[in-house]
Structure formats: structure tokens, C-alpha cells
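Researcher: Batch entry, complex prediction.
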Amino acid sequence: MKKNLITIVIAAVLVVIFALLLFTFQVRQSEVAVLTTFGKPAANNIDQPNLYFKWPWPIQQVYRFDQRVQNFEDKYSENLTSDNTMLLTSVYVGWRISDAKEFFPKFAGGSVEAAQRQLETMLRSAKAAVIGKHNLSDFVNADTKQLKLESIEDEIKAAVQGELASQNYGISIEFLGVKKLGLPESVTQPVFDRMKSERTVLISEAQFKGEAEATKIKSAAERQAADVIANAQADATRIEGAGVAEAAKTLSVFQQNPELAIFQLQLQALKSSLNQKSTLIFDERTPPFSLFQNLPANSK
Amino acid sequence: MERNIQKNGLVNLAVAVLIFLAGFGVTVFAGSLAGQVTSIFLGLGVIVAGISWFQMRLEENERSEKLELDELARSRGQSLFESKDGGSFPAQNARLQFEKYFVPGFTVLILLLEAGGAWLLWNWSGKNTAGLKEANATASLSLFAIFALLLFLIGRFSVTIARLENHRLLRPSASFLLAGAYVCALTSLAIAGDEAKFPRADFWVARGLCGLLALMALENLLTLLLEIYRPRVKGKIARPLYESRVVGIFAQPESLFTTAAQTLDYQFGFKVSETWFFQAAQKNLAALLLIQFAALILSTTIVFVDVGEQAVLEHFGKPVATLNPGAHFKLPWPMDKIYRFRTEQIQSFAVGYTPDAQSESANTILWTVSHNKEENFLVANRATVNSATVSSGTNDSTKAQAVGLITVSIPVQFQITNVTDWAYKNNAPDALLKDLATQEVIKYFAGIDLNDVLSQGRLQAAEVLRARIQAASNARSLGAKIIFVGLQDIHPPTASDVAATYEKVVGAQQTKLAKILDAQAGAIRLSAVSGAAAFTITNVADAKRVQLVSSKFAEAGLFTNQIPAFEAAPDVYRQRLYLQSFADATKGARKYVLLVTNTSDVVIFNLEDKIRDDLLNLSITNTP
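Model: C-alpha cells for the complex:
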């Protein structure tokens, strides 16, 4: 009897659990639900969190959706700007299900993946159209006043929103932003090369400016040295001149007997002009060799 | 009254086929991984039920044949049927042939299905990323629960019949049906778990059931191997080869008590199985399970929020409170649910690079060596625009050149400050925050000059970026506070030696400086030397001056003294001076004195110098 009671309790618990699973459903704060009766959706979405009752499947069925903002990133794709530059861009989009009962029949059982695929298709089209209207300088510019990234984002968002509104997908775009910006590989390499060339200019500038600066310093130093030497030589000449002038004061002494003075000067000149390599040929009349005239051999 | 078990076998087969088909359909409907393994399990049940039913029919035919033969023997005499020819017992021969060839064959087929199913579904579950179809989940779990109930009722009935009346051929299919009921219930729970946001409940249950299939395959293989060496005792009825003990234990876990009791009795040497505790546990197993279930439900009424966490309490899906660290009471699951968030913990993500553990362990970080998986960002390049504009005189040709590429590594750290906003405003707030940060980084670099950001601009970049990311986060109501934005690495791309070229500029600047310093050193040296030379020149001149003046004054003094001597004896004094000077002056000169009387003679002197000394002129000296 006791065993039967326990069995009945277990069976009752199981029945209650199954009944709750079949006849009730919860909707969370983050969710919105659509209740269908024999496949026909109810007039209003269930967007308030609570416990709700329903008839079991297949009479009624609940479709739940996340009503929070969902974000996804499109493919990193290449587009042509108006100044014929190939630009790679990727944008991320924040979107939400604005009307669940419009949303779920349009995307295979309310598949978020299917919706994102559809959004991506629209996004790529809108992105290509908007990028084609702008120059590269609108995307990248050191002058922030000319940078138009935010307005480009707004243009893409407006284009996608317009497309969504025209077909009433039950989706709204909350925000959109550029997540990646780049150049294709074939352009990236030349940009690398150009960046290297810029550096090479700086390298050359540094090298040759260094040499020029060094040459200037050396020549200035040499010029200064020449100045110093020249000044010194001029000073030396002046000093020597002063010496000569001072020495000239002694000439009056020599003027007392010019004959003797001139004779002495001749003797000094004689001394100075003869050196070891000089060859002198004298005859017997030249003193002191005149002594040879009175020799016996000569008198004979 | 003996029950006709063929009918039970047929019912089991029919139920197995129906539930298998329905289960397969619901699995496709729900996209459940656990449902796929369950379908394999139910399919195996169909094969086992089919074989056992066919074998029952053969045994029944054999029994009818034997009865007919016995009847004939009694009416016509024994002699007519003394022949031992096998052809006289076609039903018996058919059963023997079936047991000898078909049963092992089917068992091998079951083994292959079990092993293949386990292997394929294990791999498939690892690769499959589709997940459950949420819209169909509730209906699917209800259907699996209904299948479980049906299989339980019929399986339980068959197991009881097989045990009470000892129908060995009914036992395998009955066990499979009962085990199928539990497998369906598990699948139903797995789908419910996924619905309740337990992480990958369906996946893990599928993996567990794959393990069960693998275990069954292993047992089947062992049974087949042992069958080869099993002694064939005449008259002893063999256990059906396709009957799984693993399935039997899974279907009837209470049979484990018997096995466990026998083991304990043997181990302890007395009847443990007769103690009151063991008896009570065996009798009240169902009540214990019920209490366990109640305890499980009650345990969901107490919540412990850990340090550094906050939890959002939902009552029927509606957030009613934010729970801080500590113990909290709530209504049992699924009425109240909590969702935990690490609000105190500083969380981080990276912009511009993917951290690489191997590269990050390096002690030295260089521009020229890639230290992470780095991305390149477009950055404006004012220098290029200016130089090209000057050279070409137009701005159009410079547009494509007005960009550079830069590599940045920016770690961003944040805390969750408003858990409600974080949980309910965005589907994936952490991913969105990273997207926002990346967007702000791109915008920042797109509007700043390459050389500015590499030099003085980086000082303010981190603070500007932090403020911008915070503003973007606030605009999206993320409920996060940006704690830190670090510009730990900004440099030209490592690829194609761009960064290396930047380093060469620094080298060239150093070389330039070295050349200038060398020139300055030379200038200093030259200045000093020229100064010294100038000093020497002036000093030499001064010395000459002094010498000149002194000598002239001395000569004047001498002359003054010579005048009286000259005036006293002019000729003698003149001649004396002449001869003294002559001797001094011609002392080193070569002198020829020509003493001739006949002046008409021509004397020829060879005054040529010898160009070089010859051997005869060499003076050889001996040196020790």
C-alpha cells in the first residue's frame, strides 16, 4: 500500500511537471514572444516578462525571440571610393527585433542567422553605394574637420533602415559603426614601400646634413686658424719692422766713419756669400796670396 | 495458463518501430543532438525486438512440430520415427540454423551499429554548431516525455512478464524498451536544460549517450569473443547472444542491488544484504529518489552570490532584484531564476591584436619582431600630403598617398557598473563593447597624423580613447565603466621591414650627430694648433726683433770703438780687418791660387762636381 502511494506521488509529480511544461510558458525581460494558434499568430506580441498559459502543442505554439540589441559584423569587403582608391571596410550593426510577429514568418522560423544574412546583403549594397560617393580623404584625414567617417556611417545606416522599412521586416537598426578600415594587399605593399621611402628620405637627410654640418664646422675652423696664423704673421712682421726701426737708430753711429762702415759691411757680405761649396780662383796679386809674388821661384 | 509470448514480442516490436520513427521525426524537428543518439538507440531496439520475435516464432514452430510428432508416434507406433535423419525435423533445423548463423550475424550488425553510431555521433556533436531549434524545443521535449512514458509502461510490463515467467527471449526487447524510456526522458531533460539556458545541456547528454553506446559495443564484442570459448553443454539453454547486460542494468537499476549484495556478502563474510539498512534502502528506493528530487528542488531556493559577483533575480522572467554577495532565498526553480555577473572583477579585451602566449613570454619587445598577431590600422599622413603638394602643385595626386599604416596594441579594462543594463539592453554586451572600442580606435587614427601619434601624440591618445570609449558605451547603455585604456604598443608595421626602416632613421641621426661632433673636435684641435702656431710666429718675430736690435746696438758699440783704431792706422787696420775676414770667409771654400807669370797661357780648370762617389772614393771603416 505504501509502495503504491509512493508510485502515485511520483506519477503525480511527473504529471504536474509535464502539465506545466505543456500548458505554461515564461517570457523573460530580454525576450519577446509570439503565440500562434494552429499556426495563426496572435494580434499582439508578448513583450512583458511573466508566466503565461497556453494550450499544448499542436494547438498553440510559442515562438520566442531576443528583443535586446544584437550586433553582428559584416564581411571585410573591398569597395571603390570616388577618387578610385580600393578601400577595405567592415561595419558592425546593432539591430533589434522591433515587431516579432512580422519578423518570424519572414525568416525561416524566426531564425536570427537568416535575418543577419538578409541584413548583411542589404548592408553590403548600401556600403558600396555610400563608399563610392566619398573620397579616401573623407575616411582618413589628419584634418579632423574634413574627416567624414561619422556621416558615412549615418548614410549607410539610413540606407539600410530605408530598405528595412520598405519591406517591414520587423527589424530596426539601432546603430552602425565602422569596425575595420584597410587597404587591399596589392595596395598595402606599395604603402609599406612608400613609408619606407619616406624614412629613406629622412635617413639621407640626416646623413648628408651631418656631412654638410661637419664640413661647415671644419671649414670654419680652418678659416679661423688661417686668420689666427695670418694675424700672427702680420704681428711678426710688425714686430720685426719695429726691430729694424729700432736697429736703424744705430746707423748714425756708422755714419761717423762711412768708409769703415762700408768696408765692414763688405766684409760681412763676403763672409755671408761664401760657403763650403764655393770655389775661388785667385791669382798672385790678391792679398794675402800676393805674398807669393816675392817667392824666389817667381822672381827668377 | 501459459502466456503466448509471441504476442508480447510482436507488441514490443511494433512499439519499438513506432517510437523509433516518431523519435527520429521529432529529432529532425527539434535539431537535438541527444535526440540523434536516442534515435540510434531506438533503432537498435527495433533490431533486437525483431530478432527476438523471429526467434520466438521459430521456437514456437519447433514446439508445434514436436507436439505433432509425439502425437503421431503415439498413434502409429515408435518404429516409424526411429530415424535420426535431420530432415525429419525441419522446424528444429530452422531454429538451429538461425541460432547458428543468423543470430551471430545480427549481433555483429548490432555491434557495428553501436560502435559506428557512437563514433560518428561523438564527432558530429563536436562539429555541429547549429544547436536546438528554439521554436520547436517545447513541443519536442513534451513529445520525448510522452515517448518515455509509453516506453516505460510497455517496457516495465514486458520486463515483469519476462522475469515472472522466465521468458528469456522476451527479456532483450523488454530491457531495450525500458532503457529506451530512460533515454527518451534524458533527451527530454536535455532539451529542457537548453531551454533553461544551462550551457550546452543537449550536447553533454548526447556525449553521455554516445558513451553508453560505446559501452554497449564493448560489451557486445566481449560477448562475441567469449561465445567462441563457451562450453556447449547439451540440454542447457543459452542466453540470447544479442541480449545486452549493460542495457539490462540501465533499464533495471534495482537489479544492481542483487549484484552489490552478493559482492558485499562475499567481501565481509556475513549477510550484509540482510541488515536493516540494506533492506530499508532496497525497499524504499523510490521514496529515496523522491526525497532526493524534493531536496534538489529545495536546494534551488537558496542562492549564494560570490564575492565580486552580482546576480539578477527574475520572477517568472521579470527582473525583481539585484542580489549582492551573500546568501539569499528565492522561490524554487523554475519560478525564480538568477543570472550571475562578475561586476567587481576587472575584465579586459584587446584591440588591434590577438594575444599570443608564446610571444608575450618574451622578455624583450621590439618593433622589428612581431610579438602578437597584429592588425594594421589606417592613419593619416600629413607629411606625405605636404611634400607631394609642394612638388606637384596640386592636391589631387596626393589623396591616395595621404595614408599610412600603423600597428597598435591596446588593452582595454572595464567593470560592469549597472548589471541590469548589462544584462537586458544588449544581446552580447561584451562583444559590443569591443566593437565600440575598435570603432573609436579606428576613428582616432583616421584623424591623426602618423608622425604625431608616433611621437608626442601618444601621450594624450590613451586618455582621449578612454573618454571616447566610455562615451560610446554610455550612449549604448551598456552599464560598463572603462577603467583603463593602454597604448602599450604603437609602431609602424613589422611587415616588409617598415619598422626596421624607422629604426635606421634613428641610426642615421646618430651618425649625423657623430659626424658633427667629430668636426667640432677637429675644429677645436685646429683652433688650438693655429693659436699655438700664431703664438710661435709672433714670439719668433719678437726674438728676431730683439736679436736684431741687440746685434745692431752691439755692432754700433763695436764700431764706435773701432773708429779710433781705424783713424790711427787706416791702412793697417783696414788690411787687418780684410785678412781676418778673408780667412774666416774662405775657410770652407775650395780655393785655387794661380801663380803664373806668363799671362798669355791658357789654364783650364775642370770645376765640375762629381755626380756621385765611386768605389775608389769610399772610405771603408772597420767596425768591431
